[in-house]
Design goal:
This is V-type proton ATPase subunit F. The chain is an alpha/beta fold. The protein has 5 helices and 4 strands; from the N terminus they run βαβαβααβα. The chain has a 4-stranded parallel beta sheet, sandwiched between helices.
Length: 122
């Protein structure tokens, strides 16, 4: 398995304060050469356009390989996630403290399931 840091690739996080804090304490926090962070803390005052803007900036950055997004936040920009087709950066929807993960809402997982049939796993 290749370590993301080996090639200078980062993870980005779009999540609530607890989620972002946990990942930042885990060491994923980074500022690029333009002093842009690789995370967005979303709270009740964060607009959908701010979430969309952060997602589009993270997707456009060449130094980000994975974007983690709280599933409840992903629901706010589902139209963008459904249209996103690129393999890198990979988009992973994650649960938060107050919102458990629901696989039926995960558009990336639904797309992946559509690539395989039950026969493939026998």
């Amino acid at each position: 398995m290749t370590h993301l840091g080996a090639k200078g690739k980062l993870m980005a996080v779009i999540g609530d304060e607890d989620t972002c804090t946990g990942f930042l304490l885990g060491g994923i926090g980074e500022l690029d050469k333009h002093r842009r962070p690789n995370f967005l803390v979303v709270d009740k005052t964060t607009s959908v356009s701010e979430i969309e803007e952060a997602f589009n900036k993270f997707v456009g950055r060449g130094d980000i390989a994975i974007i983690l997004i709280g599933q409840n936040i992903a629901e706010e920009i589902r139209h963008i996630l459904d249209a996103y087709k690129e393999p890198i950066p990979a988009i992973l929807e994650i649960p938060s403290k107050d919102h458990p993960y629901d696989s039926s809402k995960d558009s990336i997982l639904r797309r992946a399931k559509g690539m395989f049939s039950a026969e493939d796993f026998r």
